[in-house]
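hey m, so remember when u said the C-alpha cells were messed up on ur end? i reran from scratch. heres the input so u can diff it against urs
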Amino acid sequence: MNFGFIIFLALFFFLNFLSNHCHTTEAAPTYIQNDCPDTTLFARNSTYQSNLNTLLSSLSSAATDDADGFANATAGKDLRDRAYGLFLCRGDVSTATCRECVAAGTEDILRRCPDRRSSVIWYDECMLRYSDQSVYSVMETVPLYTMPDAGDVAEPDRFVKLLGEAMNDVAGRAWGSESGKKFAVVEASFTSSQKLYTLAQCTSDLKGSDCNTCLRAVIASLPQGKQGGRSFTPTCGVRFELYPFYNASAVAAAPLLPSTPAPVNGPKGSSEITIAESLQYHLATIQAAANNFSHRNKLGHGGFGEVFWGRLPNGQEIAVKRLSKSSAQGVREFKNEVLLVAKLQHRNLVRLLGFCLEGEEKILVYEFVPNKSLDYFLFDPDKRKQLDWSRRYKIISGIARGMLYLHEDSRLRIIHRDLKPSNILLDSDMNPKISDFGMARIFGVDQTQANTNKIVGTFGYLSPEYAMRGQISEKSDVYSFGVLILEIISGKKNSCFFQSDGGENLASFAWKNWRAGTPLELLDLFIGDIYSIDEVLRCLHIGLLGVQEDPANRPTMASVVLMLSSNSTKLPKPRQPAFFLQRSTERQSKELEPDESTSRSMPWSINEMSVTEMDPR
C-alpha cells in the first residue's frame, strides 16, 4: 500500500475523530435549574403521557427545523389531556447548539421531573417547558430564581449604579426589539481594564409590555455587590458578568446609552435608591407619555400629589403618580415605596413598573388599572349597583389573598398600615389590587410587633392598640380588613356612619344585629335579592372577628383566607368589637381627621357559606 495513502487515511480518521469530539463538547448543554411544581401527577401509560411524548418530539423537531431559537407546540385533542409546551434558545447560540440543547432538555426534563403534568428546565443555552395548561403568550414571574456568582465586586456603590443603568438599557432594548427575538446584550466600561456584560431575553411570544414587566421583576431580584449573577423565570431572564459570557461574534453588543438622571446625594440616600436603579425612567420619557402632565390626562389627586394617565412608546398604558413639591410624602416615603413595591409580585397588588427621580421631580410609574378604586363604586348610590354580591365576595377574597402575601408569603413581612377602599384598585375584571405602600412598615422575619410615636393611617380603620398606644403588628392590618369587610357588605362608610348615627360606628351596628339575630340588616339593599346567605354570614362573621379589641382574638390573614375558601372551616365566636370614642383617638393622633390619612392616599382613577359556629344570640 502506498505510504502516502496510509498517511492520508490516518490523518482523515484523526480529523474526523477530532471533529466529532469537538462537536460533542460544544453541544453539551450546561444545566442550571429545573422546577417541578407540586401538582397532580400523570399516570404511567396514560393519554396525557402519550400526548406529552408527542409534544416533546415535536419541540425537538422544531429545533432541528431552524425555528429561530423559539417554538411552541400542542398535542392532544381532549382539553383534559392536552399537553402544551415551548422552548427558547439564548439569542446568541447557533442553530446546532440550540438543537442539541432542546434535544437534551426533552429527555432530561422527564428524568428530573418524573410524572409531573407541568415542568420547566433551564440550561445556559436554552429553556424548555411543558404544562397541561396553555403557556403561550402568558407572562409568569413565578417561580423566580436568582443565582449569584462567587466573588464580591470592587467599588460596590459605583458598580451597582452602573449595573442599574445597564440593566435598564438592556431590558428596554429587549422588550422594545422590532425583531422576532426579544433579546439584547449591552456592554459598559467599569474600569479602564474591565467591562460589564449584560443580557436580557424574553420568550418571543410575549407582548412587549409583558416582557417589560417580567424583566423588571427579575432585575429587581438580581444579587447585589457580586461580580456576576442571573435571575430568571419561565418567561424571561437577565444575566451580568465581568467577562464576555455570550457569543460576541454572533450578536453585536450595544454600548450603554448615556443616562442623565439628577445626582442623588445628601439626605436622599444614594445607597438605597441605587438598588432600584434598574427601574428608573428618564423624565423626558414620562413627560411624553403623560402629555406633559396635561389636565386632560389627570386621573386624580391627593395630599401627595397628582396621578396621570400615560402611554409609553410601546403602547403600554401607565399610571403616573407625580408627587407634589410640598408633598407630605418626603424622600424617605418615596424611597420606601420604590424599594418595597419593586420586590412585590402578586395578582392582588398593584404593580410598580418604575420611578423617576430628577431634580425636584419624584414620580412613581404603576400599571394602569382601568376601574378606579373600590370607594368610587362602593359609596356611590348609582355605581354601587354594579357591585353585586358575587363581585363583592370576589373583592373580599382577593384583598385577603393580597394581604396574606404581604404578611407571610413575600420575601418580606410587610404591614400596610393604610388599608381602606380608596387604596383598593379594580382592574377590568373588577379584581382587587392593593395599592399605596408609602406608609408600609417592613418587619424582620421573626418580628411580630413594633412601636411607634407617629401614628399614620386613616381614622376609622386604625386598630385601638395602634391608634392609642402606637403598637403595630399584622393584627393592625387585620383590624382594617375587618372594617373593610363590613363596609363592602353594607355599602356604608364607617366614618359617615359614625357621624349620622349618634356615635354608633359600623362595627357596633353590625354587632348589635349579630346579637339580635338580624345580621342581614347590615346587607346593602343595592345588592338585591341574588346572593348567598351562607357567604354573607361568613363574611360578616370574619369581619366581626377582625375588629375584636384584643389583637390575640383576631384571626391571621392565613386563617381568613382559609375561612373564605372552605365552608367546613369552623369559625370562633366573635366577641364584642372594639368601641372607642372618636375624640379619644383624635387626642392620640391630632394629624388624623375622619377619612383622612397622613399619607393622603388618592382615590386613583387608574381606570380608585355554611357557618358552623354562628351564635348571633
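this time it looks ok to me. Residues 450 and 472 are 5 Å apart (CA to CA). if urs says something different then somethings off w ur setup not the seq
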